[in-house]
Amino acid sequence: MTYYYWKAEILKEECEKIISEFDTSLSGKLASVGNLHGTEGLYPEEIEAMKKEGRWDYLHNKSKNEDVPDTSIRKTKLNWLPANHIYNKILCEFVTTTNEKHYHYNLTKFTPCQFARYDVGDFYDYHQDSGQSKEDYENETRKLSMTVQLSDPDSYEGGKFLFYNGHKKETEPPIQEQGSIIIFDSKMWHRVTPVTKGVRYSLVSWSLGPSFQ
Description:
Blueprint: E1 3-6, H1 12-22, E2 29-30, H2 44-52, E3 56-57, E4 62-63, E5 74-75, E6 77-80, H3 86-103, E7 109-110, E8 114-118, E9 123-127, H4 134-138, E10 140-149, E11 156-158, E12 161-164, E13 181-185, E14 189-192, E15 195-198, E16 200-210
Antiparallel strand pairs: 1-13, 2-6, 3-4, 5-9, 6-8, 7-16, 8-16, 9-14, 10-13, 10-16, 11-15, 12-14
């Protein structure tokens, strides 16, 4: 099981600024399970392609394939950083560097960051980020995943980020410090345990490339 991380890489002040800017407590969309990005998390060319292919809901200004939330697997609220947000560029550099040194995958796209708010009782059960839909295999698929710890660890309880590898004991990577970043293969099974006190905030993103041969 291999992953790469940086402890407290983003300053506390920057983390708090991101939280203030994208907190979904009032307007956030309940997360679904699947290939859901939200309009803010789509590049203009992706929206245009959806329109040409008849996959765009003009009435509600969103993709037609946004899934219905499945709260038995995942319960959290989401927001999205606009594609041109500076932190998409900053965090993409971490992924690019990690890939060049360790994974050597053919990557063609870095998805804009998804901002997640986990309130008490919110969680995300074990899952893989890759292969979320048939289109993932036919066109491009998620290859590397990234998570940023935005919250001060003293501000909440529960909400642990864990990896699972067969029958071995769960692994908790050392990314509890605010501003820590982790990058891992999107095929790795992982989860976020239920938050029991306070609120946990994070950023996630995926880097995609042509389907594996």
